[in-house]
Amino acid sequence: MTVLSRFDRGYKDSVAARAGMWLELFRSTVELLIIVDPVGTIPFLLSLTSDLDERERAAVVDRTVMVSAALLVLFSLAGDLLLMLFGVRFESFLLAGGSLLVLLAIRILFQGGEGWGRSTGSVGAFPLAFPLIAGPGALTSAMISIKTLGMLYLIPVTLVMLVTWAVLRANSWFMRVLGRQGADAIARIMAVFIAAIGFEYAITGLRASVL
Fold first, then answer.
1. Which helix (H) or strand (E) holds 157?
2. Which domain covers residue 87, as residue numbers?
3. Is 49:122 a contact under the CB 8 Å cutoff?
4. pLDDT tens digits for 138-184?
5. For FRET with 49, which of 20, 58, 157, 167 sits at 20 to 30 Å CA-CA?
């Protein structure tokens, strides 16, 4: 093999590796965006903050996104350590996370944005940040993606959190365009995709546990 052919092969391998990395970044970003579903979260935000003015609601959005981002970063960086401390296998966490994601999707599919309670001082942390935005599906996705992307996974987290913050901050505009029923319909439609992702996680965890 000549020097030129070795260089050509190495260049092609390098291009393929970079293409694979960008593809994985895109996949992780889209998957996390589907799970977080910022537009579908708007009905829940309005239901939980119905007695707050615009300034107070904006503060809730800021707190929600900060808590969500912190949870995603924590689980992506220290998820394996947390599992080890509690003696939980990753396969078990995958099965549990996927199952909870399916249950959450069923809850959203049948009840939409109703029945999540009224606004409280901690509404930004629960249930908006957890389990609606940084719920079991998003946390499981973070722990999976960090294994393939490494620290680059912070890019999808940052992009999705910025999109989520912008969408939730523009909740009044989205409600004028979509209406409460339209936003609620989007939440229910996205719940189907969330359930599918949850089933994939659960099946993967169950298969890994059995084999």
1. helix 154-169
2. 9-210
3. no
4. 888 888 888 888 888 899 999 999 999 999 999 888 778 877 777 77
5. 157
